[in-house]
Amino acid sequence: MTDSFKTQAVQTRIYEGKEPIKFLSIFQSFIIFKGGISPGYKNFMVESAIEDKTFNPEGIALFWVQGFGLENMQAIQVIPMASSLNSSYCYILHSGNTLFTWSGNLTNASNQELVYGVLEICFEDHYGLNRGSISIIHIVPALR
């Protein structure tokens, strides 16, 4: 088989958090929520006596915003603790009907622009939140 492809690899391994731009561009913009809603997931959580931390619109959730442009941006739910924050990235904190955005002091204007894109595309279109029902508070980094 490798001879037919002139010794070029036909498969590759991609590690979570190290995805190349071409791979992420397949999915365009998306949001990843922790947990699940399937009966199998719920039963597993009950049987294992593990606290279910599935995203709840009335609860608190922290999303790490990443991407390489407005055509390719992601919001990935992380543990809502200060230790999850990194000054090189932007985040969205969802608390009930309020969204807080936080941009680390090492982010640039293009990183911060991604937050606005994620708010419009992922939170409004995919999750059904609209600006009339939520408050958005932007926390900007201090000047260096």
TrEMBL record:
InterPro entries: ADF-H/Gelsolin-like_dom_sf, Villin/Gelsolin. PANTHER family: VILLIN, VILLIN-4. This is Villin-4. It comes from Platanthera guangdongensis.
